[in-house]
Amino acid sequence: DAGVIQSPRHEVTEMGQEVTLRCKPISGHDYLFWYRQTMMRGLELLIYFNNNVPIDDSGMPEDRFSAKMPNASFSTLKIQPSEPRDSAVYFCASADRGQLRNEQFFGPGTRLTVL
Amino acid sequence: AQKITQTQPGMFVQEKEAVTLDCTYDTSDPSYGLFWYKQPSSGEMIFLIYQGSYDQQNATEGRYSLNFQKARKSANLVISASQLGDSAMYFCAMGNIPQAGTALIFGKGTTLSVSS
Question: Which residues of chain B neighbour A108 with C-beta distances below 8 Å?
Fold first, then answer.
């Protein structure tokens, strides 16, 4: 398996622009997580899905952030409008609750810079 | 509320020595899972080891072992025979169910530097 795939790997945009981050989880995984990593706040959960349904979005900073999972193989995290404080590395992770080894598989991350 | 505390911002160790990275946690849930991840300078998150709250034995994965002391709410990572490639940031994390399908709360991390 190719692992969790995220695109783009790097994104530089200007304040006010819309940004869309994409994630393809590992096939067969029924959980998908979006995390954000910053120097100030560390790694924090934004939202997670189970079987394509959002379960907990309490970590989403504000209404400018939205996430969707239209099917089991694709999820997006959208920021509109973007602000400089959104600059961070955004990780997508997936997991299978039935797996023998308890591991959340992380994607390589998207490094977002908002100027 | 759940919380993970890693009190060591940085640790230094010589190659081939063992090192312990500290992690304490706080939760009122009777069942939970504890995870350790490694983040090298390249940025990816690499899973190292997992411990469920009801597991009777401490988890081991190769050179990694987890010193789980439930009463003290600690889950320290022990790396035996350190290698230069172990230099990285290490994160302790907790989930509120003892499985991988759980949102993780991360500690601030510990930077490990291994020298020759």
Answer: 43-44
Identity (one letter) of the amino acid at A2? Answer: A
C-alpha distance from residue A96 to each of A12, A27, A55, A109, B64 (Å): 32, 10, 15, 20, 23
Separation CA A97–CA B60 (nearest Å) = 21
Whether the per-residue pLDDT at A57 is higher than 80: the answer is yes
Does residue A85 surpass a pLDDT of 70? yes
The predicted pLDDT at position A94 comes to 94
For chain B, 116 residues long, the average pLDDT of each consecutive 10-residue run is 93 97 94 94 94 92 96 96 97 84 92 97
Q: Is B98 on the interface with A (CB under 8 A)?
A: yes
Partner B, chain A 7-66, Cβ-Cβ below 8 Å: 30-31, 33, 35, 42-45, 48, 50, 56
The residue of chain A nearest to residue B93, with distances taken between CA atoms, is: A43
Count other Cβ atoms within 10 Å, centred on residue B57.
8
Return phi, psi of residue B30, to 5°: -75, -25
